[in-house]
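1st attempt posting a full record on here, be nice pls
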Amino acid sequence: MSQFTCQCCQQVFDKSSDPCFVVRVTAFLEIEPCFDEDDYNDTDRDNLSALADTLERVYPIADPTLHEDQAERDYRLCRDCYQQFMKDPVGRESTAASISFSDN
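the predicted structure (as tokens):
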């Protein structure tokens, strides 16, 4: 009998009768380098040097997050937790519901 534990609600399920949903989350730094159209169309331009200059601007050598710019995680969820996740993947509704303000 193959079982899995939902990583959200911590209940144990039997894979033969209950589906196991794998949610894969990939986070990465989005980089949009600035290119000048005139430089791009210049046929006399040294493209290798331009690429090196762009990479130096985008990835400073001293940047400690250079090696942490992508993370990938897998989560095994039961059907109910998967459906809740799909309704609110970043947790906005659950976070807003957990915050209460006084009547002051």
